[in-house]
Specification:
By secondary structure, the chain is an alpha/beta fold. Helix content is about 25%, strand content about 25%. The chain has a two-stranded antiparallel sheet with strand order 1-2. A hairpin with a 4-residue loop joins strand 1 (about 5) and strand 2 (about 10-15). The protein starts with a strand and ends with a helix.
Length: about 70
């Protein structure tokens, strides 16, 4: 998305770039991180496409509907 990422000995520092950019991500192996990416997409220029997140529908709640509901607020 364009953030500046610095790996330190015992930490990671992430700093926002002037502009964040949308991206396409296969979320099959990172379904929980996809929720964070969906929220970050609100602040990006361009389109963000998250694919292979069907497991969201079989979690404790339908996360697709939940994210849609909350992001539309």
């Amino acid at each position: 998305m364009g953030a500046f990422i610095e790996f330190r000995e015992s930490s990671i520092v992430v700093k926002k770039a002037k502009n964040l950019n949308g991206l396409s991500v296969d979320c099959k192996m990172i379904p929980d991180a996809a929720m964070t990416l969906a929220t970050m997409a609100l602040f990006c220029e361009g389109t963000t496409k998250l694919t292979n997140n069907a497991s969201w529908k079989v979690k404790e709640t339908d996360r697709i509907i939940a994210m849609q509901t909350e992001l539309l607020k």
